């Protein structure tokens, strides 16, 4: 379906929209622009009134299609622009809405924020963009935006972002064959989420994940680790300085390495203060 809205967003799902789905799509593309006067609370209240009131599987099917619709819009929004921030605010507001359907065959499972539906729809969109072997420039932007969206969702507590971050970073920075769209998507995690990635590395998050790229020679069961963090930082610096990469790729790799350096300095500074305070405490303890 061609876009007829100021954002240029398309209804990019496999089925033709029902009348009500089209209404929700049109409303979302009215809410999302930066100059929209609609608040996220007003938006979710209005969307809630559009859901079917039946207590059977029809309502459940519509709910899944709603999340498909939501996550076909998300990757089309520039992760650096205000519409993406308004989109994430909408997701947060949807999380706290009450259940839509209270009875019937699916009692208590049909809230907007139910992980069954949102995870299925998000995963469907994620896998579709990830598995595109020869992405167009538009698909490459959508993959980067999708990773930016997942990073924002992680910072807002809207699901666990560690495994998807690791997947994107591994595919881009540990592969012998550099693919710039994947590199830009990986770098996005560090520009937006560097502190959390560093925390994952400190805690050795997902340590039993055995997936790795050919260039990573550390233990596959490490998952996140400080050694892997340093490897990623080195790869970003290497790609940043290559004369054959596009300026956009060099720029975001530069931003990513700077973000990583700030986090390392910040964390090391905190550790120095903690060690100093512990030393002072021991000195006082000896005097007592």
Main traits of this protein?
288 residues; 62% helix; elongated; 10 helices; 2 domains
State the gist of this model.
Pfam families: DUF3632. The protein has 288 residues and is mainly α.
Estimate the strand proportion.
Answer: under 5%
Largest sheet descriptor: none
* Inertia-based shape: elongated
**Strand runs, count:** 0
Order of helices and strands: HHHHHHHHHH
Distance between the termini: 77 Å
Structural class: mainly alpha
Oligomeric state of the chains present here: single chain
Helix content: 55-70%
Overall pLDDT confidence? 82
Number of domains: 2
- The value of Rg in angstroms is 22 Å
Low-pLDDT windows of residues? 100-113, 276-285
Helical stretch tally: 10
Topology:
Blueprint: H1 19-31, H2 40-49, H3 57-73, H4 82-95, H5 115-130, H6 137-155, H7 162-173, H8 180-202, H9 226-240, H10 247-287
What does this structure look like?
This is Transcription factor domain-containing protein. It comes from Aspergillus cristatus. InterPro entries: OpdG, Oxopyrrolidines_Biosynth-assoc. Pfam families: DUF3632 (PF12311). The chain has 288 residues and is an all-alpha fold. It folds into 2 domains: 1-159, no CATH class; 160-288, no CATH class. It contains 10 helices and no strands. It has helices spanning 19-31, 40-49, 57-73, 82-95, 115-130, 137-155, 162-173, 180-202, 226-240, 247-287. Helix 2 crosses helix 4 (82-95) and helix 8 packs antiparallel against helix 9. The longest helix is centred in the last third of the chain and has 41 residues, at 247-287. The N and C termini lie far apart (77 Å). The model is unreliable at 100-113 and 276-285 (pLDDT under 50).
């Amino acid at each position: 379906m061609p876009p007829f809205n100021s954002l240029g967003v398309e209804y990019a799902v496999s089925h033709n929209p029902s009348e009500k789905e089209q209404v929700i799509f049109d409303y979302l593309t009215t809410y999302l622009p930066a100059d929209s006067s609609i608040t996220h609370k007003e938006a979710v209240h209005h969307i809630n009134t559009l859901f079917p009131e039946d207590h059977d599987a029809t309502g459940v099917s519509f709910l899944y299609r709603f999340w498909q619709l939501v996550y076909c819009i998300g990757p089309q929004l520039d992760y650096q622009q205000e519409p993406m921030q308004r989109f994430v605010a909408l997701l947060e507001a949807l999380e706290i809405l009450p259940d839509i359907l209270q009875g019937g065959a699916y009692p208590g499972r049909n809230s907007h924020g139910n992980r069954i539906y949102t995870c299925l729809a998000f995963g469907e969109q994620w896998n579709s963009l990830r598995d595109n072997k020869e992405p167009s420039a538009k698909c490459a932007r959508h993959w980067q935006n999708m990773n930016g969206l997942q990073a924002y969702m992680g910072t807002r507590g809207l699901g666990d972002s560690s495994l998807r971050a690791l997947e994107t970073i591994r595919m881009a920075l540990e592969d012998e064959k550099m693919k710039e769209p994947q590199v830009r998507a990986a770098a996005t995690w560090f520009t937006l989420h560097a502190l959390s990635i560093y925390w994952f590395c400190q805690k050795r998050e997902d340590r039993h994940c055995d997936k790795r790229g050919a260039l990573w020679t550390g233990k596959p069961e490490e998952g996140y680790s400080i050694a892997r963090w340093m490897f990623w930082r080195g790869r970003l610096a290497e790609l940043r300085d290559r004369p054959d990469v596009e300026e956009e790729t060099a720029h975001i790799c530069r931003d990513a390495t700077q973000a990583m350096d700030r986090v390392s300095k910040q964390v090391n500074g905190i550790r120095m203060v903690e060690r100093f305070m512990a030393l002072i405490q021991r000195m006082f303890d000896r005097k007592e």
